Amino acid sequence: MLRSFSIQAIIFLVAFQLLSFLRETSMLSTNTPLTEIAKATQAVVIDEVPTLMGETISLNAQGKTTILYFFAPWCQVCHASIGNLQALFQKNEQLDVIAVAMDFTSSEEVMRFTSQHQLTFPIALGNEAIKQTFEISGYPSYYVLNEENVIIGKSMGYSSELGLYLRSL
After folding, report:
1. Considering Cα of 46, then 151, then 20, then 5, what sign does the dihedral take?
2. Which residues, in sequence order, are bridge partners of residue 68?
3. Using CA atoms, how far apart are residues 167 and 132, in angstroms rounded to an integer?
4. Among the four residues 94, 121, 122, 149, which has the most C-beta atoms within 10 Å?
5. Separation CA 141–CA 32 (nearest Å)
6. 74, 106 Cβ separation under 8 angstroms
7. What number of CA atoms fall less than 13 Å from residue 70's CA on the CB side?
8. What span, in angstroms and rounded, lies between the C-alpha atoms of 122 and 68?
9. Could you report the per-residue pLDDT of 44-72, keeping only the tens digit for each?
10. Phi, psi of 43 (to 5 degrees)
11. 91 membership: H or E segment, kind and range
12. pLDDT tens track for 61-120
């Protein structure tokens, strides 16, 4: 009985890892400087993205490891995982987080999402050009940038606080 369960668990883990790998192949590649991506798509401005508070923010790393979290307010997986990101942000002063709202109908919809989850990191209001530039095909999607603004990690779907932390190392 235990042997059968162990074999099933191993098969599940291998299948899960394979599916995750296949989904992430459509995302931007790691070890790519974000500045090169921005130059290649000159029509997209990632240095002055509007925020929920009416200011602008750069999606570039500002001398700290940075997690770019792309979400949609209607996404149930985003609702389930954003708390993990908030907890990680509060516990790690050496880490920046920028959430980028995508596929929303109004800024009020995004405001309700951020209020519901009591988010304290900046919320950028993304658009279709940003979605295309970052090759976002599902939510939530994460990119981890190092201090030099190079993509060092990526993921799509639910991630635990530990998983997010390990990707940011």
Report:
1. negative
2. 98, 143
3. 23
4. 149
5. 17
6. no
7. 25
8. 10
9. 568 889 999 899 999 988 889 999 999 99
10. -75, -15
11. helix 76-91
12. 888 999 999 999 999 999 999 999 999 999 998 999 999 999 999 999 999 999 999 999
Give the gyration radius of the chain's Cα atoms: 17
The DSSP letter of residue 103 is S
Q: What is the CATH number of domain 2-167?
A: 3.40.30.10
Measured between alpha carbons, how far is 100 from 49 in angstroms, rounded to an integer? 9
CB 134 within 8 A of CB 28: yes
26 vs 41: CA distance, rounded Å:
17
- Residue (of 31, 57, 46) closest to 121 by Cα position: 57
Return the number of other C-beta atoms located less than 10 Å from residue 11's C-beta: 10
Which helix (H) or strand (E) segment holds residue 49: the answer is strand 49-50
What is the C-alpha to C-alpha distance for residues 62 and 116, in angstroms, rounded to an integer? 28
Hey, where are the domains in the chain? 2-167
**CA nearest neighbour of 31 among 164, 152, 133, 136:** 152
User: Residues near 155 by Cβ (< 8 Å), separated by ≥ 6?
Assistant: 20, 24, 141, 142, 163, 167
